[in-house]
Amino acid sequence: MAIRTRPARGSNPPPDAGWPSIQDPASLARALEEWFPGEARSLPWRRERSGYRALVSELMLQQTQVSRVIGAFERFVERFPTAAALAGAPEDEVLAAWQGLGYYRRARLLHAAARAVVERHGGDVPRTEHELRALPGIGRYTAGAIASIAFGERVAIVDGNVLRVLSRVAGAPARVADAASERWAWEQSARLVAQSSSPAVLNEALMELGATVCTPAAPRCGGCPAEGGCAARRAGTQAAIPAPRIAAPRRTERWTSLVWIDGNAVALERRPDRGMWAGMHQPPTVPTPGGGDGPAWPCAVREVGAFTHVTTHRTIEFTVVVPDGAARIPADAGWTRAPLGGLDAYALSNAAWRTLEVAGLDVTRPPAAAAGRRAPRRAATGS
Ligand code: ADE
């Protein structure tokens, strides 16, 4: 049997060691800083700056598009205007205010971060990357973004947009979601911010350029302040840099949800505290058994429709059933009787809203959740 030994430290150079660097970081920093003020989109977290607004917006923007964050951000900071107000709110209210943004773990982490800000910093969001990183849910990128944009600290940032801009400008063979590429990009971003006159402007310019000009497909190189010094533009390799991520296989699951209406209430269950949609509510849902048999429910059911919900790691085929005839929601099932007119008080995932709609309920989703609506796989088959 071959015995694998760990190579001696330093004998195994990282794959990014020979990659090109940004040639003239001082010129690039200047060009970005001159470009940004005239080109920045008017976004709510930019109209009025504070550490708290930066904290909320950066957590929301971690995995959600700007267009979906705008409305949710405004409603969220109106409802919870300070870290102290957020820290004092019950978790269910925070999750309900997060609806439509997805990845609810971020809402719990933001809530925990607000509590830590109150306990450790008297309610004021700390100003340094170092202190920010000690808060729940705050990684290197988010800490750098808040510290530099809200407080002017000279620290680097790298997210997907920034990695794309830097790797194209340098002509480096980077790949999305790849450790060596990210290590290289952090070094380059640090070289750039070291040359900047305003770390706040430079870092937000990098994000903005990646979001609006140096886009993954069809970049608008003609409007780019870095065009003159961009190695990918010179070589015509923009479309190939960075290389796409190596995709993890997505698994398919089959779930059945029961939409049980009894008078003016619908049965909801709370999901477990861990995992997907942790702690959120949904119509009672079980894995669909294989072999053609339906799940065992406390009443006879009939199928009324189906739809497919796609998440980052799974494709979930939902079958939606309703009681076959009038039946009372059993008191001992551990379900909540949620009033049909008050569903927006519950944090429901987009899939749960869709389930209610497929069952024929005329529900009004809260505005942020309505933004996440998807087309049905096939329409409801019954009333
Ligand atoms: N993405 C992440 N942070 C952002 C910001 N501050 N502005 C625009 N897009 C962003």
In words, what does this structure look like?
The protein is of the alpha+beta class. The chain folds into 2 domains: 25-240, Endonuclease III, domain 1 (Orthogonal Bundle); 251-370, Nucleoside Triphosphate Pyrophosphohydrolase (Alpha-Beta Complex), CATH 3.90.79.10. It is 39% helix and 12% strand. It is built from 15 helices and 8 strands. A 4-stranded mixed β-sheet has the order 5-1-7-6, covered by helices on one side. α3 (51-61) crosses α4 and α10 crosses α11 (179-194). The longest helix has 17 residues, at 105-121. The chain is globular, with a radius of gyration of 24 Å. Residues 1-11 and 372-383 have low confidence and may be disordered.
What tags apply to this protein structure?
383 residues; alpha+beta; Nucleoside Triphosphate Pyrophosphohydrolase; 2 domains; four-stranded mixed β-sheet; four-stranded antiparallel β-sheet; binds adenine
Q: Which stretches of 5+ consecutive residues score pLDDT under 50? A: 1-11, 372-383
CATH topology of the largest domain, by name, is Endonuclease III, domain 1
Helix content: 25-40%
Small ligands present: adenine
**Helix and strand succession?**
HHHHHHHHHHHHHEEEEEEEEHH
Rg over alpha carbons: 24 Å
How far is it from the N-terminal to the C-terminal residue, by CA?
65 Å
Structural class: alpha+beta
Overall CATH class of the largest domain? Mainly Alpha
The CATH architecture of the largest domain can be given as Orthogonal Bundle
Average pLDDT: 90
What is the total tally of β strands?
8
For the record, the count of structural domains works out to 2
Sheet with the most strands: spatial strand order? 5-1-7-6
Instruction: Classify the beta-strand content into a percent band.
Output: 5-15%
Q: What multimeric state do the chains show? A: single chain
Shape assignment: globular
Name the CATH superfamily assignment of the largest domain: Hypothetical protein, domain 2
Q: How many DSSP H or I helices?
A: 15
How would a crystallographer describe the biggest sheet?
4 strands, mixed
